Amino acid sequence: MAIRGETITVANETWHRIFGLDLDRHRIGRSLAVRGLGLVYFIAICSWWTQVALLVGKEGLSPAGNLLSLLEERLGATGESAIWALPNVFWILGTSDFAFQFVCFVGAILAILVFLGRFCAPCLILLWIIYLSLVNTGGVFMSFQWDILLLEAGFLGIFLATWKSRSTWRNPPTLSVVNRIALVFFWILIAKLMFFSGWVKLAWAGGAYPEWWPERTAMTYHYMTQPIPTWTAWHVHHWSESFHHFSIWPMYFIELVLPFTIFFGRFGRAAAGIGFVLLMVLILFTGNYTYFNWLTIVLCLPLIHDRLWPEWFHNWLKFVPEGLPPAPVWKVRALKLSIALPVFAILALLNFQVILGDLHRAPNPALKANPTPEWLDTFRAKLEPFRLASGYGLFRTMTTERPEIILEGSWDGTSWFEYDFAWKIDELSDRPKFVAPHQPRVAWQFWFAALEKRFDYRSRNAGWIESIVIKLLQDDPDVESLIKHNPFPNSPPRLIRARLFNYEFTTPEERARTGDWWKRVAVGEYLSPVSLSEPGEEAPES
């Protein structure tokens, strides 16, 4: 046994010397990342918790119960499994408002336990199941890249975490062989996220997809046209044009070059981690991108080698540098690997398909023919509902205008009064605010719906917009939480319509004169006047 232990130790030392991976010397980053996942889960679940009943509850804008019933009916006729097609716990618990509230409550408690270092791995398993259930029943409101990113990172976190009942902040434990493999997958995930966020900006440029990244003018529009701007974005938008043209180059360097340095030793990984975090911090200061920036920062933590954390942090953690950990009992290692290795093999195949597939699907592809075999495409499609590995590409195209849908109500069809929605750009004098890491998902969806220019029943946004209109006409108290100012406080309007406006930031001179942060121009009708009233019905007296 002593000879076997010495052989393993020598083999590990050789591996580190040749490849420079030092996989066992990322104890601090691993510990912080696991706790960080708990914090991000807590933010994401609590943010959804405050909106879940209104969005997908029994009387919500897009009831999840309707989705599950429709899916069960359609797939049941073909003999397919609806549970496999859309895995979630609400097949068992039901889709009542209480069920959603209860699941969110349990998720918040589990996330706190992970942050505190209690039962991390078991809690992360349950958190992944819970958030997968919320995403798969959230419909259009849960269709964002960061929701999928949290699921992929959360699943890897299960294998990165320790199975001990308690993990203290002080002197983080060493990494097991399973932890070390999961660590490499974490590196692949952050590299994939950042590289493809840069890749799509170039690959999707072309006549069929109007694109502004190659001309270096994207940042002159970004701060104004992003979904929920901040007041800092107004100020940065008015910086010099040369600054906006220049700022695109550091972004390209961070997104397209630094991902490759992850695999070139501790200093390459540190350079990548610092660059990624710097980019996320800059985005945090000028935009409301929910918990995405915080999650990305968490993914960067395992990139930092233990020796590269500052000395004061080592002292605070009472960190004791160690050599290679002692070789574990062979039977224990074999058992752990027998469980984990098939999962890692599946993840490797899925990531291989995702990466090559994303390169192939761009309008200006680097690869002319589909490089992945058909069986692998089918394999990924079968596992897609579990969100184990996904493709990413943030800010693929840059919108150059900011259309906004303005809902208006009327009693007589002549005098119209605007609704002012929370967090959405409506009032010209409203100062843009910070709301992240909370995500007001209706405000986000209004931004996407406005890009369609016209209400269309074939759109994925049609259902919830129609629900809002009906609830406003019915004076539904639930929709009050979405509105800052209700122009019909005593009785609902008889008619609702939606107009489309193009908004722009005011100039500093215009703001000094008027006090407004925005100016706008009417560009057309988004939704013609609709009513629940019978023809000829009279409006009640004021």
Describe the protein in words.
This protein has 542 residues and is an alpha+beta fold. The protein has two domains: 2-386, no CATH class; 402-530, no CATH class. The protein contains 21 helices and six strands. A hairpin with a 6-residue loop joins strand 1 and strand 2 (417-418). The longest helix has 32 residues, at 330-361.
Shape: globular
Radius of gyration of CA atoms, rounded to a whole number:
26 Å
Q: Structural class, judged by helices and strands? A: alpha+beta
Number of helices: 21
Number of strands: 6
The portion of residues assigned to helices is 40-55%
Query: What average pLDDT do the residues reach?
Result: 89
- Give the biggest beta sheet: 4 strands, antiparallel
Strand fraction equals 5-15%
How many domains, in number, for the residues?
2
List the helices and strands and how they pair.
Elements (H helix, E strand, L loop, with lengths): L1 H18 L7 H23 L2 H5 L7 H15 L3 H4 L4 H4 L3 H20 L3 H18 L7 H16 L16 H27 L15 H7 L5 H7 L3 H21 L3 H22 L5 H9 L10 H7 L12 H32 L12 H10 L18 E9 L6 E2 L1 E2 L19 H10 L11 H12 L9 E3 L9 E11 L2 H7 L3 E13 L12
Antiparallel strand pairs: 1-2, 1-5, 3-4, 5-6
Helix pairs in contact: 2-7, 2-8, 2-9, 2-15, 7-8, 8-9, 9-10, 10-13, 10-17, 11-12, 13-14, 14-15, 17-18
Outline:
The protein is an alpha+beta fold.
Keywords summarizing the entry:
single chain; 542 residues; 54% helix; 4-stranded antiparallel β-sheet; 7% strand; disordered C terminus; alpha+beta
